[in-house]
Structures are given as structure tokens and as C-alpha cells.
Design goal:
Elements: H1 6-9, H2 13-35, H3 40-76, H4 78-97
């Protein structure tokens, strides 16, 4: 299918959504901890866990994007190849900075 997103092609959409719902629950838990004025270090521990979960999700999506979208663009060549490679490079740079 043309323009099919990598997570659809890899069949991981539901797994990503499940992971995002879990992360969403963690973030709500952190908000509750702040509201209940819990110990700062405990809150920071949970923030770190959410950060790692988001990084893991990001790396998974990036892997899928490289394996599906970038590989397909390279096969096509031309402008599409250059665009997808630049997108991937920019995404990697954002992930490294975060």
C-alpha cells in the first residue's frame, strides 16, 4: 500500500498504542504524586521511567521507519530518497539531543 506508515506495515500499531496508554497512565500517576505532595526523589524516579519508555518507543518507531519508509524511498531513488534520508537524519538528531 502506498504511503502506508511503517508501524502499520510492521503490524505494531496496536502494540504502540498499548505502550502509549501505559505511558499515559504513568504520567497521570506522576501528576497524582505531585498533587499528593510525595517525596521529590520518588517523583523523579517515575519521570525517569516515563522518559525511558518514551525513548524506547521512539527508537522502535525509528527502526520501523528506517526499515520500511527509508528503504522504500531508496529503492525509488530521486527526490523521495533525499527527503526520507533527511527526515531520518533530523529525527535521529532530535532523539540524540533529548
Amino acid at each position: 500500500m502506498e504511503n502506508e506508515h511503517s508501524y502499520v506495515a510492521h503490524g505494531t500499531k496496536d502494540a504502540h498504542l498499548k505502550r502509549l496508554r501505559r505511558i499515559e497512565g504513568q504520567v497521570r500517576g506522576i501528576a497524582r504524586m505531585v498533587d499528593e505532595e510525595q517525596y521529590c526523589i520518588d517523583i523523579l524516579t517515575q519521570v525517569s521511567a516515563v522518559t525511558r519508555a518514551l525513548q524506547s518507543l521512539s527508537l522502535g518507531l525509528l527502526d520501523e521507519h528506517m526499515e520500511h519508509c527509508v528503504v522504500e524511498a531508496v529503492r525509488q531513488g530521486g527526490d523521495e530518497q533525499a527527503i526520507k534520508l533527511k527526515e531520518a537524519s533530523t529525527a535521529i538528531a532530535r532523539l540524540v539531543k533529548s
